[in-house]
């Protein structure tokens, strides 16, 4: 492993120790701290993290299921790599799926309880961008996951499009295919705070379109929202494509 100097400080993320271990190992896999060529062991990772084997064993199972790691031999693991084309496809298909869900929800009518929860997400996000304070990416990520889940879950409940759930789960198995894909490649052209601020403004536009029943517009907004993920990963084409090589260690 490379630099693991702050391994024992499990970060500021909320939740159980098990979830913190999952989050940390996922982060290491995606940022290159864990080399795709290095065989990982439960014991070695537990020592590096300063925890027992139990949460590491749980985390390894979760990350294999997510597709971030793959089994290598009896007890070893390797960071799984993906073709850029597969990741781009997962991001684009995810935005198509969410756009479809949002359109169906707008056409069916946004329930008051969902509108209230979406407004709460907007307030939480707005608070993260107060002048003079750094943006807490973990807090933004939690809000973002909630925002996207509210829209798709409401579409399933209100519009009766239950097929969304298994399709969403399939796409989430590819790294960056789900709404928790807040990762930044070295070649990303926007500063992190600027990127997140822009994405959050898109949340405001999405909620406004849902409220007004503008199905076609909210579908288009979700497609554009997905483009922001490609920008952050250095996978966008055209003017935002800086052409600086592999955007993340797990992409080939």
TrEMBL record:
Alphabetized Pfam families for the sequence: FCD, GntR
UniProt entry keywords in alphabetical sequence: DNA-binding, Transcription, Transcription regulation
InterPro entries listed in its UniProt record: GntR_C, TF_FadR/GntR_C, Tscrpt_reg_HTH_GntR, WH-like_DNA-bd_sf, WH_DNA-bd_sf
Top-rank taxon: Bacteria
PROSITE patterns: HTH_GNTR
Residue ranges occupied by any HTH gntR-type domain in the UniProt entry: 15-82
Keyword Transcription regulation: yes
Statement: the UniProt record of this protein carries the keyword Transcription: yes
This protein's name: GntR family transcriptional regulator
Annotated organism of origin: Halodurantibacterium flavum
